[in-house]
Amino acid sequence: DGPTERCMVVPYGVNSEVKPAETRRVSRSKLRVLTVGTVGLRKGTPYVLQAARKCASIASFRMVGGVEVSDTVQSRLAEHVDLVGRIPRSEVEKHYRWADVFLLPSICEGSATVTYEAMAAGLPVICTPNTGSIVRNEKEGFIVPIRNADAISEKINKLSSERKLREHMSHEARARYEEAGSLESYRERLMNTIISQMGDISE
After folding, report:
1. Interval 89-123: pLDDT, tens
2. Is the dihedral of CA 101, 106, 111, 112 positive or negative?
3. DSSP string, 58-119
4. Exposure of 80 in the CB half-sphere (CA atoms within 13 A)
5. Cα–Cα–Cα angle for 27, 84, 140, rounded to 5 degrees
6. Sheet harboring 141-143: ordered strands across?
7. By C-alpha distance, which of 175, 140, 178, 181 is closest to 159?
8. Distance CA 82, CA 31 (A)
9. Average pLDDT, the chain
10. Mind listing the pLDDT tens digit for each residue in 69-91?
11. Confidence of residue 29 (pLDDT cuts 50, 70, 90)
């Protein structure tokens, strides 16, 4: 075991070809909220459902990913959420382009790749601290407590009613990806961390 003070966290990056949708700012009657990932407890699916119920009048919800819940739960979800199911990676981009906001209220996670992809697509992100993302609260989106559908609903309402805020966070999300979420930025951070640690050892 080594000293904890020498441990450094270096968030990784992803090579995303997803670009922000040019037509996202067109006015719609409902906000489009997207979740990408396995439909199950670990990704916070129960809280997506609760938020979808609370925000039914202002937002449409879509979940893309394999479904790992019982038939009964799946039926309840389908009443309020468009369940796309598992699709090829090549088809995920069109769903990022469909969305206005990305939601991932994970209970347990490493560092979810989909949050990097969502930012690359210029989507404000609503996530939990357990999602392991590089999202900064109230900059590229919102970080909400785990197991808290009320907090999710509050942020969805805010993004629905404040178009300028949504557009600002969209811009910030793309900039954050380019600055800290790409593979190139990860390479630079990792090398700088290694070099700094080697310098500390030599001293």
Report:
1. 889 999 999 999 999 999 998 889 999 999 999 99
2. negative
3. TEEEEEES-B-S-HHHHHHHHTTEEEEE---GGGHHHHHHH-SEEEE--SS-S--HHHHHHH
4. 19
5. 50
6. 81-85, 59-64, 31-36, 101-104, 125-127, 141-143
7. 140
8. 14
9. 88
10. 999 999 999 999 999 999 998 89
11. confident
**Pair of tokens at residue 90:** 């090549």
Is the model's pTM score more than 0.90?
A: no
The answer to whether the beta carbons of residues 169 and 124 sit under 8 Å apart is: yes
The span from the CA of 109 to the CA of 100, in Å, is 23
Single-letter residue type at 68: E
Secondary-structure percent of the chain, ordered helix, strand, coil, rounded to 5: 45, 15, 40
With cut-offs at 50, 70 and 90, classify the pLDDT of residue 184.
Answer: confident
CA angle (110 as vertex; 109, 112 as ends), nearest 5: 80
Label residue 141 left, alpha or beta by phi (over 0 means left) and psi (-120 to 50 means alpha).
Answer: left
Best CA proximity match to 108, nearest among 128, 93, 124, 89? 128
- Give dist(CA 182, CA 90) in Å, integer: 19
> Dmax of the chain from CA atoms?
62
Task: Locate 55 and state its tokens.
Answer: 């925000």
Label residue 7 by pLDDT band (50, 70, 90): confident
Token code pair at residue 102:
């990305």
